[in-house]
Amino acid sequence: MPHYASPTQLHNHVSRLFTGKIIKSLPVWYLAMKNIPPGQSLLRSPLQFREDNLQNHNLRLRRDTKSHSQKHLKTKVPRPQKIYYMLDALRKDFYRDHPYELLRPQILIEQDGGFVEKILGNLKFPCRVTGENVIKYQEYLIKKKGMSKNDAYIQACNEFYKIRAREEVAERVAEEQALLFGARGGQSQTERSLWLEHKNLQKSEPQIITQVLRLVS
Asked: pTM (2 decimals)?
């Protein structure tokens, strides 16, 4: 019969077999092993291993190896470097706080850098001030005046608000003066729509009366 006991306990196992009369006589090496037992074996007993634990260990080892290879040994895909422009960041902040400025007409012609630097001493342009002018003025304050981004934004917006207020006042004054001197403005789209509706109703009024009389009679 197979024996899986430790070598140090082999003589005890043989003694139990002899006492139980399973074997008829003791082996010749019994007394020598009993007096001088062998040392501990460097080999582990097969009973200390379980097949499911060994499989789980191998599976975990393969998974860790695969994860390590995916993280550290994977070939990196070449990507273009991110391009950053200060004007893009300033433009994003300005139009986030002033979305209605996007509804105003824009000039798509790029200005020369030297010309822009000359007229950016303050936010007073020969043409109508737009959001792009405010953004370039803020960039001018950051680069040429050494101001921080927030301080330049506050100063540019404050001057922008003053210019917008002066423009609105000038437009109202011009409209009042034009009306005072007898100017008559054109009809708005709503007024023209109401006038056309009234005109069509007047044309179709006789037909409506005739149809009503027919229904009554």
From this structure: 0.48
Domain boundaries, the chain: 1-40, 86-180
Percent of the chain with pLDDT over 70: 72
Q: Where are the alpha helices (DSSP H) in 73-188?
A: 86-97, 113-119, 131-143, 149-180
> What's the DSSP call for residue 124?
-
Structure tokens at 83: 């391009």
To which H or E segment does residue 64 belong?
helix 51-72
Region of 80 (left: φ > 0; alpha: ψ -120 to 50; beta: rest) is: beta
Residue that the structure tokens 């499911």 belong to: 52
SS3 31: helix
The conformation of residue 23, written as its DSSP 8-state character, comes to S
What tokens does 86 get? 């200060």
Alpha carbon distance 119, 111 (integer Å): 11
Instruction: Give yes or no for residue 21 having a pLDDT over 90.
Output: no
Calculate the alpha carbon distances from 122 to 2, 103, 114, 133, 176 in Å: 102, 24, 15, 11, 30
- The CA distance from 94 to 142, in Å, is 15
Cα(116)–Cα(139) distance, integer angstroms: 11
